[in-house]
Amino acid sequence: MQAPILAANWKMQLDIAESAALAKKIANELPRGNGTVILCPTVAAMPAVSLAVSGREDILLGAQDCHNQTKGTFTGATSPAVVAELGCTYVIVGHSERRQLFGETDEVVAAKVAAAVAQGLIPILCVGETADERKKGESETVVTRQLTTALASVPPEAPCIVAYEPLWAISHGAPHPATKAEVTPILKQITTLLEKRSATPVLYGGSVLPDNVQEFVTPDAFAGALIGGASLTVESFLGIVATARRTYAI
Ligand code: 13P
């Protein structure tokens, strides 16, 4: 049985010193055991976080975004080559905040996924529908479009992770979790769409907390979680890791 993948997306919530301090606490307190823990700090904090977790091969790094070109006149952008150079194994691509606040289209996301894969990074491809799309009954259509466009040019054997993050369940301050029953149909849909690819873990994201992670992350549901707000303290993040690992071991 595969162990759960728990990824912390710290968004733009912590500065470099805070990121390093949190990473250090996680490195000191995370029990050695099964499963993958991924930390995704702001990119400038990567060297400090990398140093803070050195010696813990079970804690891996991810960037929160990258550009779709490796070099060029793209002021302010981060090359996937630099992401790799910083020691990242993963890169989050197509997060809903990038799509909504930075205008990333499905085509831009697809180009970023392709660039990440070409660089040898494992993309954590985020998909998910808005509250409005859900109300109109468009959840399946939206997620199918996002997923098929993003993976169209990615060889089926290329390692990739998909994160289903319904926008209506993302906390933005106050958690308002979905229920397992609400998200299971979309998980089934995603699993079907991924059938022809080699094992692609599907994570869940959206107000994941220590006391609801067992609803989503189980051997017969999601393979792990992408956690925002609750990954910002060592207590809640390691609480989530412990519960998910326990659920998987049963
Ligand atoms: P929350 O866990 O704060 O809802 O954030 C989810 C998310 O956007 C992770 O990428």
UniProtKB/TrEMBL annotation:
Its EC number is 5.3.1.1. GO terms for cellular component: cytosol. Pathway: Carbohydrate biosynthesis; gluconeogenesis; Carbohydrate degradation; glycolysis; D-glyceraldehyde 3-phosphate from glycerone phosphate: step 1/1. It is an enzyme of class 5 (isomerase). It comes from the Bacteria. It catalyses: D-glyceraldehyde 3-phosphate = dihydroxyacetone phosphate. InterPro entries: Aldolase_TIM, TIM_sf, Triosephosphate_isomerase. Pfam families: TIM. One of its GO terms (molecular function) is triose-phosphate isomerase activity. It is found in: Cytoplasm. The keyword Isomerase applies. Keywords: Cytoplasm, Gluconeogenesis, Glycolysis, Isomerase. GO terms for biological process: gluconeogenesis; glyceraldehyde-3-phosphate biosynthetic process; glycerol catabolic process; glycolytic process. Homodimer. Belongs to the triosephosphate isomerase family. This is Triosephosphate isomerase. It comes from Candidatus Uhrbacteria bacterium CG10_big_fil_rev_8_21_14_0_10_48_11. The gene is tpiA.
